[in-house]
Design a protein that fits this description.
Number of strands: 12
Structural class: alpha/beta
Strand content: 25-35%
Number of helices: 5
Radius of gyration: 18 Å
Oligomer: single chain
Largest sheet: 8 strands, mixed
């Protein structure tokens, strides 16, 4: 992954729809991008990179408001229709974004509900806002609906990176910011690539992230560096 490109992508997303600060766009390193607003690096098991507000706590949050999920493709991903040299159309690319976003959201909703947390649409005193974006999405063999298509086999559904912020829904204060890369595991043998398989990989990745979030909420301990 190109480090400079990732930094620009992170800074842009944080500035545009996570925390809307120009300071993030001026950052030169990953640490500067992730901590530009005073957050400090912490360790969260299972997460590549995590930053939190010193002394912040997740205690008291019983419900979660999940914001719309943004999806951006990897710069080097040049998709074509399986068995065909035609590039995917804009509508087909948007369908992939929508499918991945839906799979990620469904996984978070399912896991959080298992822990007894409600999902709401409006801010409130006990509501945690979850803002996420999927970066560098790379699908090994994209699937689109077409008649008489050639079957394509693959050992991996690709990779993607999660950028997420947990914030108080009323004040907007950022509590935790995380960045984590997921790479689909090889199945060990060739499998038929399909939209179902690709969506399952996205859901599998999101389920892992959701379990970590649920674990942190369950512990409800002060997060310090």
């Amino acid at each position: 992954m190109n480090q400079k490109r990732l930094l620009r992508q992170l800074a842009g997303l944080i500035a545009l729809f996570l925390t809307a600060s120009a300071l993030a766009q001026q950052a030169k390193t990953l640490d500067e991008v992730m901590s530009y607003d005073g957050l400090r690096k912490i360790d969260i098991k299972g997460i590549d990179t995590a930053y939190a507000l010193s002394g912040a706590t997740l205690a008291g949050y019983k419900t979660v408001m999940i914001q719309p999920i943004g999806v951006r493709f990897h710069k080097s991903w040049k998709p074509t229709v399986p068995g065909n040299r035609r590039s995917l159309s804009s509508s087909e690319l948007q369908n992939i974004r929508d499918d991945v976003a839906e799979s990620v959201r469904d996984a978070f909703v399912e896991e959080l509900k298992k822990g007894g947390y409600s999902i709401v649409a409006q801010p409130g005193p006990d509501v945690l806002r979850l803002q996420t974006a999927i970066l560098n999405l790379y699908i090994t063999a994209p699937d689109v609906a077409m008649a008489g298509r050639t079957r394509v086999y693959t050992v991996s559904a690709g990779e993607m990176t999660l950028l997420a912020e947990l914030a108080d829904s009323e004040t907007g204060e950022i509590i935790v910011r995380i960045l984590d890369r997921y790479q689909a595991r090889s199945a060990g043998s060739f499998q038929l690539s399909s939209a179902v398989h690709n969506a399952a990989e996205a859901r599998n990745a999101a389920s892992g992230w959701a379990k970590i979030l649920r674990g942190e909420l369950d512990k409800a301990k002060t997060i310090t560096n």
